[in-house]
Write a structure and sequence with these properties.
It is a single chain. This protein is of the alpha+beta class and 338 residues long. The protein folds into 3 domains: 4-67, 2-Layer Sandwich (Uridine Diphospho-n-acetylenolpyruvylglucosamine Reductase, domain 2), CATH 3.30.43; 72-225, Uridine Diphospho-n-acetylenolpyruvylglucosamine Reductase, domain 3, CATH 3.30.465.10; 234-337, Uridine Diphospho-n-acetylenolpyruvylglucosamine Reductase, domain 1, CATH 3.90.78. Helices cover 24% and strands 28% of the residues. The protein is built from 8 helices and 20 strands. Strands 6-7-12-10-11 form a 5-stranded antiparallel beta sheet. A 4-stranded mixed beta sheet has the order 1-2-5-3, covered by helices on one side. Strands 13-19-18-17 form a 4-stranded antiparallel beta sheet, with helices on one face. The two termini are 26 Å apart. It binds uridine-diphosphate-2(N-acetylglucosaminyl) butyric acid. Uridine-diphosphate-2(N-acetylglucosaminyl) butyric acid (EPU) binds at residues 127-128, 195, 227, 237-238, 241-242, 261, 273, 275-276, 279, 284, 297-299, 334. Residues 127-128, 195, 227, 237-238, 241-242, 261, 273, 275-276, 279, 284, 297-299, 334 line the site of uridine-diphosphate-2(N-acetylglucosaminyl) butyric acid.
Amino acid sequence: MNISKNISIKSHNSFGIDVSAAYFSESHHLEDLKHLLLNRCHPDIFILSGGSNLLLTKDLNAHVIKICHKGIHLVSETENEVVLDVAAGENWHDLVLWCLEHDYGGLENLSLIPGCVGSAPIQNIGAYGVELKDVFVSCEVLEIKTLKTQTLLAEACEFDYRSSVFKTRAKGKYIIYNVRVCLSKQPHVLHTQYGDIQRVLKENNTDKNPTIKDVSDAVISIRKSKLPDPKILGNSGSFFKNPTVGKDIFNAFHSKWPEAPFYKITENQYKIPAGWLIEQSGLKGYRENDAGIHEKQALVIVNYGNASGKQLLAMAQKVIQTVKEKFAIHLEPEVNII
Ligand code: EPU
Protein backbone atom coordinates (compact mmCIF):
# COMPACT_ATOMS: atom_id res chain seq x y z
CA MET A 1 0.00 0.00 0.00
CA ASN A 2 1.38 3.38 -1.02
CA ILE A 3 1.94 5.80 1.87
CA SER A 4 3.18 9.36 1.26
CA LYS A 5 4.66 11.41 4.09
CA ASN A 6 4.19 15.13 4.70
CA ILE A 7 2.48 15.90 1.44
CA SER A 8 0.48 18.98 0.53
CA ILE A 9 -3.23 18.35 0.11
CA LYS A 10 -3.89 21.61 -1.72
CA SER A 11 -5.18 19.73 -4.76
CA HIS A 12 -7.46 17.57 -2.59
CA ASN A 13 -9.64 20.37 -1.15
CA SER A 14 -11.84 22.66 -3.23
CA PHE A 15 -10.81 25.78 -1.26
CA GLY A 16 -7.26 25.05 -2.50
CA ILE A 17 -5.79 25.51 0.98
CA ASP A 18 -2.16 24.51 1.23
CA VAL A 19 -1.92 22.34 4.35
CA SER A 20 -0.05 19.08 4.67
CA ALA A 21 -0.98 15.56 5.69
CA ALA A 22 1.45 13.72 7.98
CA TYR A 23 0.62 10.49 6.07
CA PHE A 24 -1.53 10.06 2.98
CA SER A 25 -2.89 6.97 1.22
CA GLU A 26 -5.57 6.18 -1.29
CA SER A 27 -8.09 3.41 -0.80
CA HIS A 28 -9.51 1.77 -3.92
CA HIS A 29 -11.47 -1.13 -2.39
CA LEU A 30 -13.01 -2.12 0.91
CA GLU A 31 -10.06 -4.45 1.52
CA ASP A 32 -7.61 -1.52 1.11
CA LEU A 33 -9.60 0.42 3.64
CA LYS A 34 -9.53 -2.35 6.23
CA HIS A 35 -5.83 -2.89 5.61
CA LEU A 36 -5.07 0.84 5.98
CA LEU A 37 -7.04 1.12 9.19
CA LEU A 38 -5.26 -1.89 10.66
CA ASN A 39 -1.81 -0.74 9.56
CA ARG A 40 -2.14 3.01 9.89
CA CYS A 41 0.93 5.12 10.54
CA HIS A 42 -0.77 7.40 13.04
CA PRO A 43 -3.40 6.73 15.73
CA ASP A 44 -5.65 9.40 14.17
CA ILE A 45 -7.15 8.88 10.76
CA PHE A 46 -8.78 11.48 8.57
CA ILE A 47 -11.12 10.39 5.79
CA LEU A 48 -11.00 12.55 2.70
CA SER A 49 -13.51 12.33 -0.09
CA GLY A 50 -13.96 15.06 -2.71
CA GLY A 51 -12.73 17.69 -0.22
CA SER A 52 -15.46 20.05 -1.38
CA ASN A 53 -17.09 20.76 1.96
CA LEU A 54 -13.99 21.27 3.99
CA LEU A 55 -12.20 24.28 5.48
CA LEU A 56 -8.74 23.22 6.64
CA THR A 57 -7.24 25.63 9.16
CA LYS A 58 -4.22 23.52 10.13
CA ASP A 59 -1.97 20.70 8.98
CA LEU A 60 -3.51 17.27 9.33
CA ASN A 61 -1.45 15.42 11.89
CA ALA A 62 -3.07 12.11 11.01
CA HIS A 63 -3.09 9.32 8.46
CA VAL A 64 -5.26 10.79 5.71
CA ILE A 65 -7.12 8.22 3.63
CA LYS A 66 -8.65 9.32 0.37
CA ILE A 67 -11.61 7.21 -0.72
CA CYS A 68 -11.18 6.42 -4.43
CA HIS A 69 -13.56 3.43 -4.70
CA LYS A 70 -15.16 3.31 -8.16
CA GLY A 71 -18.11 1.53 -9.76
CA ILE A 72 -21.78 1.88 -10.60
CA HIS A 73 -23.78 -1.37 -10.50
CA LEU A 74 -27.36 -2.11 -11.36
CA VAL A 75 -28.86 -3.98 -8.41
CA SER A 76 -32.41 -4.48 -9.64
CA GLU A 77 -34.86 -3.14 -12.15
CA THR A 78 -38.62 -3.04 -12.57
CA GLU A 79 -40.80 -1.43 -15.21
CA ASN A 80 -40.66 1.92 -13.38
CA GLU A 81 -37.55 1.93 -11.23
CA VAL A 82 -33.90 1.00 -11.02
CA VAL A 83 -31.79 0.47 -7.95
CA LEU A 84 -28.09 1.33 -8.26
CA ASP A 85 -25.11 0.72 -6.03
CA VAL A 86 -22.54 3.46 -6.38
CA ALA A 87 -19.05 3.33 -4.89
CA ALA A 88 -18.18 6.21 -2.58
CA GLY A 89 -15.30 7.56 -4.69
CA GLU A 90 -17.39 8.18 -7.81
CA ASN A 91 -17.61 11.87 -8.65
CA TRP A 92 -21.15 13.07 -7.91
CA HIS A 93 -21.72 14.98 -11.13
CA ASP A 94 -20.31 12.11 -13.23
CA LEU A 95 -22.95 9.90 -11.62
CA VAL A 96 -25.66 12.44 -12.52
CA LEU A 97 -24.43 12.46 -16.16
CA TRP A 98 -24.29 8.65 -16.26
CA CYS A 99 -27.90 8.52 -15.03
CA LEU A 100 -29.00 11.05 -17.66
CA GLU A 101 -27.32 8.93 -20.37
CA HIS A 102 -29.30 5.91 -19.19
CA ASP A 103 -32.47 7.99 -18.77
CA TYR A 104 -32.68 7.27 -15.04
CA GLY A 105 -34.44 10.13 -13.24
CA GLY A 106 -34.13 11.65 -9.77
CA LEU A 107 -30.68 13.24 -9.69
CA GLU A 108 -31.13 15.91 -12.39
CA ASN A 109 -31.81 18.74 -9.88
CA LEU A 110 -28.59 17.78 -8.10
CA SER A 111 -26.46 18.40 -11.21
CA LEU A 112 -23.02 19.98 -10.83
CA ILE A 113 -22.79 19.61 -7.06
CA PRO A 114 -19.08 19.19 -6.36
CA GLY A 115 -17.76 16.26 -4.37
CA CYS A 116 -18.03 12.48 -4.31
CA VAL A 117 -20.88 10.06 -3.80
CA GLY A 118 -19.68 8.94 -0.35
CA SER A 119 -20.07 12.42 1.12
CA ALA A 120 -23.53 12.99 -0.32
CA PRO A 121 -25.34 11.31 2.61
CA ILE A 122 -23.20 13.06 5.23
CA GLN A 123 -24.73 16.43 4.57
CA ASN A 124 -27.79 15.18 2.67
CA ILE A 125 -26.84 17.26 -0.37
CA GLY A 126 -29.67 19.27 -1.82
CA ALA A 127 -30.52 21.79 -4.51
CA TYR A 128 -33.55 23.10 -6.38
CA GLY A 129 -36.15 21.33 -4.29
CA VAL A 130 -34.52 17.87 -4.19
CA GLU A 131 -32.33 16.27 -1.53
CA LEU A 132 -30.31 13.07 -1.59
CA LYS A 133 -32.77 11.53 0.90
CA ASP A 134 -35.45 11.58 -1.83
CA VAL A 135 -33.63 8.87 -3.83
CA PHE A 136 -31.58 7.25 -1.06
CA VAL A 137 -32.19 3.59 -0.18
CA SER A 138 -29.23 2.71 2.06
CA CYS A 139 -25.49 2.94 2.44
CA GLU A 140 -22.75 0.47 3.31
CA VAL A 141 -20.47 1.63 6.07
CA LEU A 142 -17.32 0.36 7.74
CA GLU A 143 -17.19 0.96 11.47
CA ILE A 144 -13.75 2.40 12.17
CA LYS A 145 -13.34 0.90 15.64
CA THR A 146 -14.47 -2.66 14.90
CA LEU A 147 -13.84 -2.91 11.12
CA LYS A 148 -17.32 -4.40 10.83
CA THR A 149 -19.46 -3.53 7.82
CA GLN A 150 -23.12 -2.60 8.12
CA THR A 151 -25.99 -1.50 5.94
CA LEU A 152 -27.73 1.64 7.15
CA LEU A 153 -31.22 2.26 5.82
CA ALA A 154 -32.53 5.79 5.30
CA GLU A 155 -34.20 5.96 8.70
CA ALA A 156 -30.96 5.12 10.51
CA CYS A 157 -29.22 7.98 8.66
CA GLU A 158 -31.52 10.58 10.32
CA PHE A 159 -31.47 12.91 7.33
CA ASP A 160 -32.25 16.54 7.92
CA TYR A 161 -31.56 19.84 6.12
CA ARG A 162 -27.83 19.58 5.21
CA SER A 163 -27.37 17.09 8.03
CA SER A 164 -27.50 13.41 8.98
CA VAL A 165 -26.45 11.04 11.73
CA PHE A 166 -22.92 11.16 10.19
CA LYS A 167 -22.64 14.82 11.20
CA THR A 168 -24.23 14.36 14.61
CA ARG A 169 -24.47 11.25 16.81
CA ALA A 170 -22.27 9.05 14.62
CA LYS A 171 -19.68 11.66 13.65
CA GLY A 172 -16.32 9.96 12.99
CA LYS A 173 -17.76 6.49 13.63
CA TYR A 174 -18.17 5.12 10.11
CA ILE A 175 -16.68 5.31 6.64
CA ILE A 176 -19.31 5.23 3.90
CA TYR A 177 -18.03 3.09 1.02
CA ASN A 178 -21.17 2.49 -1.01
CA VAL A 179 -24.47 4.32 -1.57
CA ARG A 180 -27.64 2.68 -2.90
CA VAL A 181 -30.18 4.86 -4.71
CA CYS A 182 -33.56 4.18 -6.33
CA LEU A 183 -34.22 6.13 -9.54
CA SER A 184 -37.15 6.41 -11.92
CA LYS A 185 -37.58 5.13 -15.46
CA GLN A 186 -40.11 6.78 -17.81
CA PRO A 187 -42.42 8.47 -16.97
CA HIS A 188 -40.24 10.66 -14.72
CA VAL A 189 -41.58 12.98 -12.04
CA LEU A 190 -39.91 16.35 -12.58
CA HIS A 191 -39.32 19.01 -9.92
CA THR A 192 -39.32 22.31 -11.75
CA GLN A 193 -41.12 24.62 -9.34
CA TYR A 194 -38.08 25.77 -7.42
CA GLY A 195 -36.32 29.08 -8.06
CA ASP A 196 -35.40 29.91 -11.61
CA ILE A 197 -35.85 26.48 -13.20
CA GLN A 198 -39.10 27.37 -15.02
CA ARG A 199 -37.64 30.62 -16.30
CA VAL A 200 -34.52 28.93 -17.69
CA LEU A 201 -36.54 26.09 -19.26
CA LYS A 202 -38.54 28.79 -21.09
CA GLU A 203 -35.41 30.62 -22.18
CA ASN A 204 -34.02 27.32 -23.51
CA ASN A 205 -37.31 26.57 -25.30
CA THR A 206 -37.60 23.35 -23.34
CA ASP A 207 -40.55 24.24 -21.09
CA LYS A 208 -43.06 22.09 -23.02
CA ASN A 209 -42.59 18.49 -21.89
CA PRO A 210 -39.08 18.91 -20.54
CA THR A 211 -36.88 15.83 -20.20
CA ILE A 212 -34.62 15.10 -17.21
CA LYS A 213 -31.72 16.27 -19.40
CA ASP A 214 -33.51 19.61 -19.99
CA VAL A 215 -33.96 20.05 -16.21
CA SER A 216 -30.30 19.17 -15.64
CA ASP A 217 -29.23 21.68 -18.32
CA ALA A 218 -31.34 24.38 -16.63
CA VAL A 219 -29.84 23.62 -13.21
CA ILE A 220 -26.32 23.64 -14.68
CA SER A 221 -26.83 27.03 -16.27
CA ILE A 222 -28.33 28.52 -13.06
CA ARG A 223 -25.50 27.15 -10.96
CA LYS A 224 -22.86 28.37 -13.43
CA SER A 225 -24.35 31.87 -13.38
CA LYS A 226 -24.17 32.16 -9.57
CA LEU A 227 -21.67 29.72 -8.16
CA PRO A 228 -17.94 29.94 -8.83
CA ASP A 229 -16.19 26.91 -10.33
CA PRO A 230 -13.83 25.60 -7.60
CA LYS A 231 -11.26 24.73 -10.31
CA ILE A 232 -11.03 28.45 -11.09
CA LEU A 233 -11.84 30.10 -7.75
CA GLY A 234 -11.43 28.09 -4.53
CA ASN A 235 -14.71 27.67 -2.63
CA SER A 236 -16.92 25.07 -0.98
CA GLY A 237 -20.37 26.08 -2.26
CA SER A 238 -22.74 27.48 0.35
CA PHE A 239 -20.59 28.16 3.38
CA PHE A 240 -23.56 28.71 5.70
CA LYS A 241 -26.90 26.98 6.19
CA ASN A 242 -30.04 29.00 5.68
CA PRO A 243 -31.09 29.68 9.30
CA THR A 244 -34.39 28.32 10.58
CA VAL A 245 -36.19 30.47 13.14
CA GLY A 246 -39.34 30.08 15.24
CA LYS A 247 -42.56 32.02 14.67
CA ASP A 248 -41.92 34.80 17.22
CA ILE A 249 -38.45 35.61 15.93
CA PHE A 250 -39.74 35.37 12.37
CA ASN A 251 -42.65 37.75 13.00
CA ALA A 252 -40.36 40.35 14.57
CA PHE A 253 -37.91 39.94 11.65
CA HIS A 254 -40.64 40.08 8.99
CA SER A 255 -42.25 43.24 10.33
CA LYS A 256 -38.87 44.98 10.29
CA TRP A 257 -37.73 43.57 6.91
CA PRO A 258 -40.94 42.84 4.96
CA GLU A 259 -39.02 42.62 1.67
CA ALA A 260 -36.86 39.69 2.86
CA PRO A 261 -37.47 36.37 1.09
CA PHE A 262 -38.44 33.45 3.36
CA TYR A 263 -39.76 29.88 3.22
CA LYS A 264 -42.41 28.65 5.62
CA ILE A 265 -41.41 25.14 6.68
CA THR A 266 -44.05 24.38 9.32
CA GLU A 267 -46.56 26.49 11.28
CA ASN A 268 -43.78 27.41 13.67
CA GLN A 269 -40.64 27.28 11.52
CA TYR A 270 -39.37 29.68 8.89
CA LYS A 271 -36.21 29.55 6.83
CA ILE A 272 -34.50 32.83 5.91
CA PRO A 273 -31.91 32.83 3.09
CA ALA A 274 -28.47 33.45 4.57
CA GLY A 275 -27.38 34.89 1.20
CA TRP A 276 -29.92 37.70 1.59
CA LEU A 277 -28.86 38.42 5.19
CA ILE A 278 -25.20 38.59 4.17
CA GLU A 279 -25.89 40.77 1.15
CA GLN A 280 -28.00 43.18 3.22
CA SER A 281 -25.17 43.33 5.75
CA GLY A 282 -23.08 44.87 2.98
CA LEU A 283 -20.66 41.97 2.68
CA LYS A 284 -21.39 40.66 -0.82
CA GLY A 285 -18.14 41.03 -2.79
CA TYR A 286 -16.19 42.02 0.35
CA ARG A 287 -12.53 40.97 0.35
CA GLU A 288 -9.61 40.98 2.76
CA ASN A 289 -6.33 39.81 1.24
CA ASP A 290 -7.21 36.61 -0.65
CA ALA A 291 -10.30 35.73 1.41
CA GLY A 292 -13.62 37.07 0.16
CA ILE A 293 -17.37 36.80 -0.21
CA HIS A 294 -18.39 35.90 -3.75
CA GLU A 295 -19.78 38.82 -5.70
CA LYS A 296 -22.65 36.88 -7.28
CA GLN A 297 -23.73 34.72 -4.32
CA ALA A 298 -23.13 36.00 -0.81
CA LEU A 299 -23.43 32.51 0.71
CA VAL A 300 -20.14 31.49 -0.83
CA ILE A 301 -16.76 32.28 0.71
CA VAL A 302 -13.96 32.29 -1.87
CA ASN A 303 -10.19 31.92 -1.91
CA TYR A 304 -8.77 34.33 -4.49
CA GLY A 305 -5.45 32.47 -4.47
CA ASN A 306 -3.36 32.13 -1.38
CA ALA A 307 -5.76 32.63 1.52
CA SER A 308 -4.97 30.42 4.50
CA GLY A 309 -7.65 28.39 6.23
CA LYS A 310 -7.37 30.76 9.20
CA GLN A 311 -7.99 33.82 7.00
CA LEU A 312 -11.04 32.14 5.45
CA LEU A 313 -12.28 31.22 8.92
CA ALA A 314 -11.81 34.83 10.07
CA MET A 315 -13.94 35.91 7.09
CA ALA A 316 -16.65 33.44 8.12
CA GLN A 317 -16.54 34.77 11.68
CA LYS A 318 -16.84 38.33 10.41
CA VAL A 319 -19.96 37.32 8.44
CA ILE A 320 -21.51 35.61 11.47
CA GLN A 321 -20.83 38.62 13.69
CA THR A 322 -22.04 41.25 11.19
CA VAL A 323 -25.27 39.38 10.47
CA LYS A 324 -25.85 38.87 14.19
CA GLU A 325 -25.39 42.58 14.92
CA LYS A 326 -27.75 43.66 12.15
CA PHE A 327 -30.46 40.98 12.29
CA ALA A 328 -29.98 39.19 15.65
CA ILE A 329 -29.88 35.92 13.68
CA HIS A 330 -27.10 33.37 14.14
CA LEU A 331 -25.59 31.80 11.01
CA GLU A 332 -24.23 28.28 11.22
CA PRO A 333 -21.54 26.99 8.85
CA GLU A 334 -22.52 24.14 6.58
CA VAL A 335 -18.89 23.38 5.84
CA ASN A 336 -16.72 21.12 8.01
CA ILE A 337 -14.10 23.22 9.75
CA ILE A 338 -10.94 21.39 10.82
N1 EPU B 1 -30.06 35.92 -2.12
C1 EPU B 1 -29.64 37.23 -2.00
N2 EPU B 1 -28.31 37.51 -2.13
C2 EPU B 1 -27.40 36.54 -2.40
C3 EPU B 1 -27.82 35.20 -2.50
C4 EPU B 1 -29.16 34.92 -2.35
O1 EPU B 1 -30.45 38.14 -1.77
O2 EPU B 1 -26.22 36.89 -2.53
C5 EPU B 1 -31.49 35.63 -2.04
C6 EPU B 1 -32.01 35.24 -3.42
O3 EPU B 1 -32.41 36.36 -4.15
C7 EPU B 1 -33.18 34.36 -3.10
C8 EPU B 1 -32.76 33.70 -1.80
O4 EPU B 1 -31.71 34.49 -1.27
O5 EPU B 1 -34.34 35.12 -2.85
C9 EPU B 1 -32.32 32.27 -2.01
O6 EPU B 1 -31.23 32.25 -2.90
P1 EPU B 1 -30.93 30.97 -3.86
O7 EPU B 1 -32.17 30.50 -4.51
O8 EPU B 1 -29.76 31.32 -4.70
O9 EPU B 1 -30.59 29.81 -2.88
P2 EPU B 1 -29.79 29.77 -1.52
O10 EPU B 1 -30.74 29.67 -0.41
O11 EPU B 1 -28.84 30.90 -1.51
C10 EPU B 1 -29.68 27.15 -1.49
C11 EPU B 1 -28.62 26.12 -1.20
C12 EPU B 1 -27.71 25.90 -2.40
C13 EPU B 1 -28.59 25.45 -3.55
C14 EPU B 1 -29.65 26.51 -3.82
C15 EPU B 1 -30.65 26.06 -4.86
C16 EPU B 1 -28.27 26.21 1.19
C17 EPU B 1 -27.37 26.65 2.28
N3 EPU B 1 -27.87 26.52 -0.04
O12 EPU B 1 -28.99 28.39 -1.69
O13 EPU B 1 -26.81 24.87 -2.09
O14 EPU B 1 -27.81 25.23 -4.73
O15 EPU B 1 -30.43 26.77 -2.62
O16 EPU B 1 -31.40 25.00 -4.32
O17 EPU B 1 -29.30 25.60 1.46
C18 EPU B 1 -24.62 24.23 -1.38
O18 EPU B 1 -25.14 23.61 -0.47
O19 EPU B 1 -23.36 24.26 -1.53
C19 EPU B 1 -25.45 24.99 -2.31
C20 EPU B 1 -24.93 25.75 -3.27
